[in-house]
Amino acid sequence: MAVSRYCIWVAALRQYFPIQQNAEIAAELDPRTLDTRMIDALAGIGLTRASLGVQDILPRVRRLIGRVEPAEQVAVAVERLWAAGISGINMDLIYGLPGQGVAEVEASARFAADENADRVAVFGSAHVPWMKTHQKAIRPEDLPDPNLCMAQAEVAARVLTDAGYVAIGLDHVARPEDAMARAAVSGWLRRNFQGYITDDAPVLLGLGTSAIGPCRAGFFKNNADECGWLAAVEAGRLPIGRRRAFSGEDLTRAEIIERIMCDQALDLSTVPAKILESALPKLATLIADDLVTEAAVCLTMTMKGARFLRHLAACFAAYLAPAATRHSAAV
C-alpha cells in the first residue's frame, strides 16, 4: 500500500474509532521506497512498528528475485525509522530462493541480528508460478531441494537463537524483552490470519480488498476485485465476497490448532474424545517417527520434529485436504 494511502486510512480510523493511547500501529514497508519524507509521514500518524521485507542480503540471490537494490538500503531505512521514533522493527527473511544455499541464509540471519531487529520471521519461499506469473522466469533447477531448504531453516534458527532471540512457534524469533517473546514464554501467545499476535481481541476487522476477518461467529473475506469492493462500499453494503459460519466443533478445533502452533505442545485433556479419536491414526505416525512425544496427557514436539509443527496441527484439521496448488508446502 502506498504510504499516502496508508496515512489516509489511519486518519480515517482515528476519526471514526477510539484508538487507545498505547495502541500498536504497524505497516509492512518496502525499504526501497522509504525516504525521509515517507518516514516522517508515517511517524506523523503514530506508526509504532515497521516490518521490512529483507528476504536475502546477498547481491547474487537478490538479482535472481528481482531485488537489485543493495542490502545496505535496509540498514539505512532502520536508522531513519529509529531516528523518527518508530522503534519496533520486524524483518522478514526467506529461504528456498533460487541460487540460495545455507551460507546465504546464514549471512541474512546474521544481518538481521546485527541490525538488532526486534522480531525476525524466517519463511519458506512459496514457488507458485500458477498464481504469481513472474515466477515463471525462475527455473525449477535453480531452486533448493527440500533437504537443502530444511538445512537453511535450521541454520537461520540457530544463528538467531545463538544471538539471544527467543523462538516463537514455527518460524519467528523475538528479542527477550519484546512483547511477543514474553507472550510465548508466559503461554499467552496467540495466532490468527495475521500470524502470531500478543493481544486477546476475539475479532479482527478486515477493511480493504481481499482482507480476511475472523470473529466468533465465523469468518469473512472481502471482495478481491477493487471495483466491486468500491461499488459495495459506496452503496452502503459490506463488501464481503466469501463467508463461512463456525460450528461449535470448528471453534474447538481452532483453539486446539492455535495452541499447537503457539506452544509446540498440546494438553490432550483439553481435547474432546471425538476429535482426539479422529486424530489418533495421524498422531501415531508422528510419534513413531520421533517427531512428537507423548507423556501423560501431553503431546510435545521433539527437537527433530520442530520443523513439522504444521503436521501435528493438521492432525486436528477437519477440512484440510491434499491439493497440488496449495500456496506452499508444510516444510
Keywords:
3 domains, Arc Repressor Mutant, subunit A, 14 strands, single chain, six-stranded mixed beta sheet, alpha+beta, three-stranded antiparallel beta sheet, 331 residues, Transcription Regulator spoIIAA
Structure in words:
The chain is α+β, with helices and mostly antiparallel strands and 331 residues long. It folds into three domains: 3-186, Transcription Regulator spoIIAA (2-Layer Sandwich), CATH 3.30.750; 212-245, no CATH class; 256-314, Arc Repressor Mutant, subunit A, CATH 1.10.10.920. It has helices at 3-16, 36-44, 59-64, 72-83, 102-114, 146-162, 179-186, 226-234, 248-263, 273-288, 309-314, and strands spanning 26-29, 49-55, 88-95, 119-124, 166-168, 172-174, 190-192, 195-197, 212-215, 218-222, 240-245, 265-267, 292-295, 298-301. The longest helix has 17 residues, at 146-162. The radius of gyration is 21 Å and the shape is globular.
Q: Quick one: overall form?
A: globular
Number of helices: 11
Corresponding CATH architecture of the largest domain:
2-Layer Sandwich
Low-confidence stretches: none
Tell how many strands the DSSP assignment holds: 14
Percent range of helical residues: 25-40%
Beta percentage is: 15-25%
Summarize the helix and strand pattern as letters. Answer: HEHEHHEHEHEEHEEEEHEHEHEEH
Give the helix/strand class: alpha+beta
Radius of gyration: 21 Å
Lateral arrangement of strands in the main beta sheet? 1-2-3-4-6-5
Question: Could you name the CATH class of the largest domain?
Answer: Alpha Beta
CATH third-tier fold name of the largest domain: Transcription Regulator spoIIAA
Distance between termini? 29 Å
Q: Output mean pLDDT.
A: 89
**Most strands sheet:** 6 strands, mixed
How many distinct folded domains? Answer: 3
